[in-house]
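Cross-posted from the bioinformatics board.
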Amino acid sequence: MSCIFCKIIANEIPSERVYEDDKVIAFKDINPATPVHILVIPKVHIEGVHEIDSENSHYVARAFEVIRTLAEEFHLEKGYRVITNVKEYGGQSVPHLHFHLLGGKNLGEKII
Ligand code: 5GP
Ligand code: ZN
């Protein structure tokens, strides 16, 4: 298994976990872009949005439920951003589906 996020799930690589359940884990990004920068990932290897289907979309639904809860826990009531990069042109560097939860400051209106 060469996927770095699968290794984080398996505890082969340490991470600063902030949430875990049967479907997803959430941990702090190693190179935070914002004061709060958490990655929420499914516990199964889905490469990216391009691999989401009716069989695995329950992982995605759970990820967003967790994002909502984490946003409350990390006091992001003023707002936050959720980003997922897809494949090469989308700037995806880790090919395991992940949602960036970004917040803790005013992120402005533009993302590109
Ligand atoms: P992407 O560019 O694929 O959308 O995002 C990958 C994210 O994973 C980056 O923000 C990067 O900092 C983070 N990342 C890469 N390797 C590790 C790691 O080993 N541990 C943690 N916590 N984050 C990582
Ligand atoms: Zn993986």
